[in-house]
Specification:
single chain; alpha+beta; Phosphorylase Kinase, domain 1; Jelly Rolls; 3 domains; six-stranded antiparallel sheet; 25 strands
Length: 574
């Protein structure tokens, strides 16, 4: 096994970058000592096979907390400063939200490649990646603005508390591998996929930050980018299962494997590891270019890894343990002593005699009256029952047959029960112009109606201007081909009017024109809910929710007054 060296790693901030640190390098071969700032986790520790290109040592610009870029992005805290660039937590004062910013001089040797990587990553628009919001060259500076996820937790932090349970590890490798397969189909690689780059949101979704950009900032390249990212996913899964880094050196707060024993399967490192996930990690990891698996063929691309995951039995979440409320267990009411005083040990409890029967003259009269009423009621009931039976005797058989036939007819004509359809992912559909807010599409199906995806605010409306913007919308991935019967769409703004349609499409890509899609149905509403019914259900994995008319709405913290809409929650049924 090729030995891999690792630098000490601190837990990174949740900004999208590793923490600020500086270490002294070893003197070079000619004996000339050099001191330089290093990245906290080099590519050999990751096992990525990436190669870092030496860059021109440009001095980072003199920036400080409170400095404002483009009169909009106010720098708050520097989280990384190394090799001529810096990364910051900042505030977008226009939209009043936290963002992350990478900064480097415009004459830095990597400035061009960083801009190109950022713009390519922004075009992908996949919600499983932390989105690039802006990439600008201005005033001798190049800066890249990206999402900041305050509710997300790094895998590094999660593993500090222990390994993930099987379902959590399964969700991690499934979502990360699927996202990277999409990225590679678009020609994008990560090359720095490590526990600092993978985040879990409060809703349980996994997000990947730094696609293409983090590698460009550090000048990292690879001749086999798919193999590099696939091995990195295998290392993430290995760490999630064992709380150990699958190489000899420690990294990311995790202990490495014992020296001189080679790469051993996760289920041999820790007891109770899921066997299928253990073998999957070994198929993704590489040892000098060969698979470390004992039985199965290696996975050398994210696409092959996704296929291997699909062939596994699905791992379901653990069933929640039911615990009866304490106040219900052992109550005096349950034991039949409700309202009685608690007995004292050693004290004889008095026996309460039942109340005496009614012995007075009034009591006897009352008993005779009740008896007479009961006898009269029984006689009347018997007469009515006999009369009803005689009247219906001649047609009981016919009625029985008719009712049975009617029941069968009704049963045959009953509509099929509807079922909710799970959403596995979503992506903005951009037919023309700029995207809306691609990083927020996941909020439309996170189960929280206080979060939402919103459109921009337009001056013309309610009907959108086809020449300028034919519409806005989101493509949803249902995981497999499903028969969609309806959609319920929660809207933030009411008013005259919102028009929304459903289309069946072949992928989440915006390159597929709407003219080639099959329209399923539409709805126009002035309220806060749109219900689109599909008259003739069509099976499709991908469904576009497409808005062509937006109601007027007042200005808020995010946008000016105008015609706009926001989706708070969306549900499909089939």
């Amino acid at each position: 096994m090729a030995e891999r060296s690792t630098a000490a790693v601190d837990v990174a901030d949740n900004s999208g970058d590793e923490p600020l640190t500086a270490e002294a390098d070893q003197a070079t071969a000619d004996g000339v000592a050099q001191n330089r700032e290093r990245d906290t986790d080099n590519d050999e520790a990751q096992g990525s096979g990436g190669t870092e290109r030496p860059g021109k040592k440009a001095s980072p610009p003199e920036l400080h907390s409170g400095h404002k870029l483009a009169r909009r992005y106010r720098l708050e805290e520097c989280v990384t400063r190394l090799d001529g660039f810096s990364s910051w937590r900042a505030v977008d004062e226009k939209l009043r939200r936290a963002v992350g910013v990478h900064l480097l001089p415009a004459d830095h040797s990597r400035a061009r490649s960083v801009l190109a990587a950022a713009r390519s990553s922004a075009l992908l628009g996949d919600p499983r990646f932390v989105q690039v919001l802006d990439a600008v060259e201005e005033n001798d500076l190049v800066y890249v603005v990206h999402e900041w996820l305050p509710d997300a937790t790094e895998l590094t932090t999660l593993l500090a508390a222990g390994p993930l349970e099987p379902h959590g590890a399964y969700q991690l490798v499934s979502q990360v591998a699927s996202a990277m397969a999409v990225a590679h189909r678009e020609g994008l690689a990560h090359l720095r996929l490590n526990p600092n780059a993978v985040l879990r949101t409060s809703t349980g979704q996994w997000r990947i930050r730094g696609l293409a950009v983090n590698a460009a900032l550090r000048g990292i390249t690879s001749e086999t980018p798919q193999r590099t990212d696939t091995e990195a996913i295998g290392a993430l899964l290995y760490a999630a299962l064992t709380q150990r880094w699958p190489y000899e050196n420690d990294a990311y707060g995790l202990s490495g494997l014992p020296k001189d024993i080679g790469l051993i399967p996760p289920d041999q490192v820790r007891a109770g590891v899921h066997r299928g996930l253990s073998e999957l990690a070994m198929r993704a990891l590489a040892n000098d270019g060969a698979t470390a698996s004992r039985h199965e063929s290696p996975c050398t691309t994210p696409e092959e890894l996704v296929k291997a995951i699909g062939e596994m039995p699905r791992i379901r979440p653990p069933e929640p343990a039911f615990t009866a409320p304490p106040e219900y267990q052992g109550t005096s009411y349950q034991q039949g002593t409700y309202g009685r005083p608690a007995p004292h040990p050693g004290v004889t409890q008095p026996v309460h005699a039942p109340p005496p029967p009614l012995q007075s003259r009034t009591g006897k009269a009352l008993k005779w009256a009740v008896s007479a009423l009961l006898i009269a009621a029984l006689g009347l009931g018997s007469w009515q029952l006999a009369d009803a039976l005689m009247d219906r005797d001649g047609k009981s058989t016919k009625d029985s047959q008719t009712q049975t036939q009617d029941g069968n007819d009704k049963k045959d004509n009953q509509p099929k029960p509807v079922k909710p359809l799970k959403i596995y992912g979503a992506q903005e559909y951009v037919a023309k112009g700029d995207a809306q807010h691609p990083g927020d599409v996941g909020k439309t199906y996170d189960g929280d109606n206080t979060t939402y995806w919103r459109t921009a605010s337009y001056k013309d409306g309610p009907d959108m201007n086809p020449a300028f913007k034919p519409g806005v919308g989101i493509v949803y991935d249902l995981g497999s081909a499903q028969e969609v019967s309806s959609a319920s769409i929660g809207l933030l703004f009411s008013g005259d009017h919102t028009t929304v349609s459903l289309y069946a499409t072949d992928s989440t890509s915006s390159a597929v024109p709407i003219s080639s899609m099959k329209k399923l149905g539409s709805d126009t509403t002035s309220g806060n809910t749109a219900r689109v019914k599909v008259t003739k259900p069509v099976k499709s994995r991908y469904v576009l929710v497409w808005f062509t008319a937006l109601p007027p709405a007042p200005g808020d913290a995010y946008s000016d007054p105008g015609f706009k809409q926001a989706v708070t929650d969306l549900k499909f049924t089939g």
